[in-house]
Amino acid sequence: MQITRQTEYAVRTLLELASVPYGQLLSTHIISEHQNIPEVFLKKTIQLLARAGLVKTQRGSQGGVGLLVVPEKITIADVLTAVEGKVALNVCLGDGDVCPNKANCGVRCILLRAQQAMIKELSRESLLDIVRGKIGN
Q: What is the fold, at CATH topology level, of the domain defined by 5-85+125-131?
């Protein structure tokens, strides 16, 4: 399993925004240059982040993109969910699955534990932790 390029761009965008004082707006051009993200993809990514309530956008000469949530409250799990939707390692772990073997499937139990562990790990540090280099091993 790999995260998509769009999720990678979303993480890098949010890290760029987390590296400036909260509330400060950055232009998409600046984010694009600093993070080496094509502006076309960046704009689509920002739309997803805005829909998820993580960033705000403002048009005009004083406009740009800024965090809507403080960086200490945003995790990689939040970004992944904002871009990809609810994490599900297999269809049987997604919403609305009607697998007839669900109740007594040993594989599902293992995948569920793995999914829970992955989400827990991706929720461990915030964007602010990452920007400040406070990452645990």
A: Arc Repressor Mutant, subunit A (1.10.10)
